[in-house]
Design a protein that fits this description.
The complex is a heterodimer of chains A (about 140) and B (about 170).
Chain A: H1 6-17, H2 26-35, H3 37-54, H4 66-73, H5 81-98, H6 105-108, H7 110-123
Helix pairs in contact in A: 1-2, 1-3, 2-3, 5-7
Chain B: H1 3-11, H2 17-37, H3 40-57, H4 67-85, H5 107-119, H6 122-132, H7 138-145, H8 149-166
């Protein structure tokens, strides 16, 4: 191992002061501090800075972030465009129904089923399902 | 409500349960963000964004872990992103931003230290305040900042030395 530099010695001295175990053995650090005035002064200045910091507490800044966050995390209703598409489909279907002598009646029968399926997907619930979670007011 | 319970409820669709976590940690988070960013207004914005990040990532949260250290990783990402965009110069005012008025400490000393802290880089300010204002151990700092404990030692050393220099301590040859 190379001889540690003054900076490494100061770092080790700081760690020892805080109860840590640095790579450089404690006796070697103490011996260096006894011999090196610059490191001794630096370590003393560091101790003084640590003591100043130890007397401080963090300032509390009041915050009320939930209303804004709540607005962001709330589920958003689907936009109007799916309803527009379904309405257009329904109108087209009705117009096609008005055409006389149409030959593709079997295929066209499926359109109302698709519209119904689309509505179920948009609403994400079945209108025929009984909501068991509903509670009367005051219950 | 415990954090884990709040997260479980949130994951099962009760979005308001997330409010429990926000209300519990927002002040602490704003304090931490203020220490990194140097001003409480940006800090509030960063904390709000970080909570939204956490909400979106909640499905990946390991319920065996603590919420705040996990959230803190997102918070510091947000803060450093803010810090890169808004390189604010520390305001020279007579009010403190990071430090509170503490008993037994003169207001002049607190203001001088607060100003010196604000002149540090966000990274230095973060590690110094987590160590001294929150009392995190080296091990906790290593986990919180996701760095080896040897790096904690060196980063703390250089951050404190810069702080000491700003406070007017003896400067050394580097």
């Amino acid at each position: 191992m190379n001889k540690p530099s003054c900076e490494e010695m100061q770092m080790a001295a700081m760690a020892i002061e805080e109860g840590q175990v640095p790579e450089i053995p404690g006796p070697l650090v103490r011996e260096h501090l006894n011999q090196c005035a610059a490191c001794r002064d630096a370590a003393a200045a560091m101790s003084s800075t640590l003591a100043t910091l130890a007397r401080q507490t963090r300032r509390r800044h009041p915050a009320d972030l939930w209303p804004a966050i709540q607005g962001e995390v709330a589920p958003r209703p689907a936009g109007a465009w799916p309803y527009v598409v379904l309405s257009v489909l329904l109108v087209v279907y009705k117009l096609i129904e008005l055409v006389p002598d149409r030959q593709w009646s079997a295929a066209i029968q499926i359109v109302p089923v698709l519209i119904g399926f689309g509505l179920f997907r948009i609403l994400r619930q079945s209108p025929f399902q009984i909501a068991t979670e509903l509670r009367l007011e005051g219950e | 409500m415990e954090d884990t319970e709040a997260i479980r409820r949130c994951l099962s669709g009760d979005r308001d349960a997330f409010g429990t976590l926000v209300l519990r940690y927002q002040t602490e988070a704003v304090g931490h963000a203020t220490a990194i960013l140097g001003n409480p207004e940006d800090a509030r914005e960063a904390v709000q964004e970080a909570f939204l990040d956490a909400f979106r990532a909640l499905a990946r949260f390991d319920l065996a872990r603590q919420f705040y250290p996990w959230f803190y990783a997102m918070l510091r990402n947000r803060c450093f992103r803010f810090a890169r965009v808004r390189r604010n110069c520390p305001a020279v005012d007579l009010d403190t931003v990071v430090l509170a008025d503490a008993s037994g400490v003169s207001i002049e000393e607190t203001i001088a230290l607060d100003l010196a802290l604000r002149q540090l880089s966000p990274e230095d300010r973060e590690i110094v305040t987590l160590r001294h204002l929150d009392g995190l151990s080296y091990q906790e700092l290593a986990e919180r900042l996701d760095i080896p404990s040897g790096t904690v030692m060196s980063r703390l050393f250089y951050a404190r030395r810069r702080l000491r220099d700003l406070l007017g301590g003896p400067k050394e040859e580097r």
